[in-house]
Design goal:
- The radius of gyration is 20 Å and the shape is extended.
- The longest helix has 28 residues.
- With 154 residues, the protein is mostly helical.
- Helix content is 76%, strand content 0%.
- Helix 1 packs antiparallel against helix 2 and helix 4 packs parallel to helix 6.
- The chain has two domains: 46 residues; 90 residues, Up-down Bundle (Monooxygenase).
- The protein has six helices and no strands.
- The model has no long low-confidence stretch (mean pLDDT 91).
Length: 154
Amino acid sequence: MRAAEKAHRELSRALHPDKYASAGASERRDALNKAADVNEAWRIVRDPIRRAEALFALAGIPVGETKEPKPEPAFLMDMLEMREALADARAKKDVDAVRKAGAGIEARKKSAEEKLARGFSAGENLEKLVPLLGELRFYRRFLEEVAAIEEDAA
């Protein structure tokens, strides 16, 4: 990730609009478009879900919430129970319970990200990794809700 960050910084400097202030209009526009592409690529690399989507797309595997297999019923039940516990903690204004639930999901999210990374690196059957992307979407929504509850409590 550090190499990608360094490359992003170097490209951002090289393509900065100020460097093209005296250039022609088409050259300035090209530099601005390239800078926008570099920034978008950096956002994709930094976001585990968008990064996985891009890697699946490069492998020719269609992804997206409507194209992915449905999560396993046991996973859905587990997430439902976690959401109910989160709702109870919110109603009771139990910020410690909210943080604990968030920490548990954060650990699961990290585990799913690591499994995806290992699978992509090892060249596994990528189709088998697609359900992990769905799990990450659930975890992200849960953690967004945790952050909102913590923000409301502050």
